[in-house]
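Quick one, tokens below. Sequence please?
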């Protein structure tokens, strides 16, 4: 148990449900019960560079490593793109980000740098066209709603929430953005990655026949953590160590493995109906999260996906997805195989200008998603990806809930759950809560 720990009972708040209108039409794609000869999916424009147009001014909310990287990805997407404002809860994060940007010849005016829990509100008062949201995921639903109310286009980093209440809020806000003609791109970069997109087209056109099963893996070494420093309050410590607290990042089944879960949902054409699984904690030194998850997602009609996520040193690592069908299988990223393991189709990566097949030219999918963002704005063809990413995030939440509780968890339970993670108010200082690690099942007494 950590010093000045927070109580999980207070952590789980009951919140009002978003109206039934926010619950309809939740499937991001059509059911895969019958494979079509045409692809039922709106593909992003896979351009090398966004088209020229009016100058687009962006603001960054969340000045950590991912936020700084996302800002640079935006600036690399085309011409006449500017970063003009920064916001973070911590002042030192803002100045550190600004310094890193200066080294890349990007100058953000000092008077457009804001910090504190309300920093995002101050940033929205600046003349910006696009807001990049890259804070800890807990804050995403509130920040996204504020951006849409301010009529801003948004880049929304994944995962887009940490709990069912947040997922429904993202869906409701997503529909507001659609009605307002805004563009919202999310950080599910595999859906903007050329080899994934072309492989999806093959599968959707019947290359592997009827999908039978899937698996998804994000198995890696431990990630960063912060030990508590003298003078840090409870709230400051959690925020500076956000990747290890469930209320801030949703546990790593959301924070990283949601990428793989999203790919499986995408290729199968729907979200799962229920989940059962397990997980545990073996080595973590801070926070309240698990070290590993093993979840079985049931998509109905006998189709299942085994989903594995682990962050432990000294173990076998693996990252990726696999879909097995009646006539073959695919690694989702670049190859379709026959049932005997021979290659049926393989994506051909672009060659260099000399036609050298040993050197392939790849545009970073982290930049490609921003090319899509800028292209949609400049060509007046709005696209909103937030709802489908909320569905994949809620799929991960369903898996997390199954592991934490040991129960079989159904999709409708998640859609109607009032679970909200986090404190009632955000104030630097002591927080009267604890961090018990979830223990599934019933403990037997001697």
């Amino acid at each position: 148990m950590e010093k000045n720990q927070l109580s999980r009972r207070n952590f789980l708040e009951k919140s009002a449900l978003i109206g039934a209108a926010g619950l309809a039409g939740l499937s991001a794609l059509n059911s895969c019960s019958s494979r079509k000869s045409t692809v039922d999916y709106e593909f992003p424009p896979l351009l090398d560079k966004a088209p020229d147009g009016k100058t687009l001014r962006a603001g960054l909310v969340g000045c950590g490593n991912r936020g700084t990287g996302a800002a640079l990805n935006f600036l690399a997407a085309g011409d006449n793109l500017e970063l003009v404002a920064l916001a973070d809860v911590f002042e030192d994060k803002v100045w550190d980000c600004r310094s890193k940007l200066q080294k890349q010849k990007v100058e953000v005016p000092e008077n457009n740098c804001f910090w504190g829990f309300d920093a995002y509100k101050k940033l929205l008062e600046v003349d910006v066209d696009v807001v990049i949201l890259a804070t800890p995921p807990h804050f995403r639903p509130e920040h996204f709603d504020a951006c849409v109310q301010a009529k801003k286009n948004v880049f929304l980093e994944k995962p887009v929430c940490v709990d069912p209440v947040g997922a429904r809020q993202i869906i409701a806000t997503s529909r507001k953005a659609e009605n307002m003609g805004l563009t919202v791109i999310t950080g599910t970069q595999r859906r903007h990655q050329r080899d994934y997109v072309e492989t999806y087209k093959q599968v959707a056109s019947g290359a592997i026949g009827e999908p039978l099963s899937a698996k998804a893996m994000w198995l890696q070494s431990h990630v960063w953590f912060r030990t508590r420093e003298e003078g840090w309050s409870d709230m400051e410590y959690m925020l500076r160590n956000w990747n290890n607290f469930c209320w801030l990042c949703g546990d790593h089944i959301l924070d990283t493995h949601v990428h793989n879960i999203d790919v499986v949902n995408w290729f199968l054409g729907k979200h799962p109906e229920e989940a059962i699984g397990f997980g545990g904690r073996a080595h973590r030194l801070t926070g309240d999260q698990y070290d590993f998850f093993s979840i079985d997602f049931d998509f109905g009609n006998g189709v299942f996906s085994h989903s594995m996520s682990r962050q432990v040193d000294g173990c076998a690592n693996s990252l990726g997805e696999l879909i097995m069908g009646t006539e073959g299988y695919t690694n989702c990223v670049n190859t379709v195989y026959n049932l005997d393991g021979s290659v049926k189709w393989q994506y051909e990566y672009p060659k260099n200008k000399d036609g050298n097949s040993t050197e392939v030219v790849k545009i970073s999918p982290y930049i490609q998603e921003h090319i899509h963002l800028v292209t949609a704005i400049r060509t007046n063809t709005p696209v909103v990806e937030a709802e489908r990413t909320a569905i994949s995030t809620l799929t991960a939440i369903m898996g997390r809930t199954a592991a934490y509780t040991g129960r079989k968890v159904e999709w409708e339970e998640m859609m109607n759950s009032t679970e909200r993670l986090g404190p009632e108010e955000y104030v630097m200082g002591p927080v009267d809560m604890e961090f018990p690690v979830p223990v599934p099942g019933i403990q037997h007494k001697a």
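The mean pLDDT is 90. The first helix runs from residue 8 to 11.
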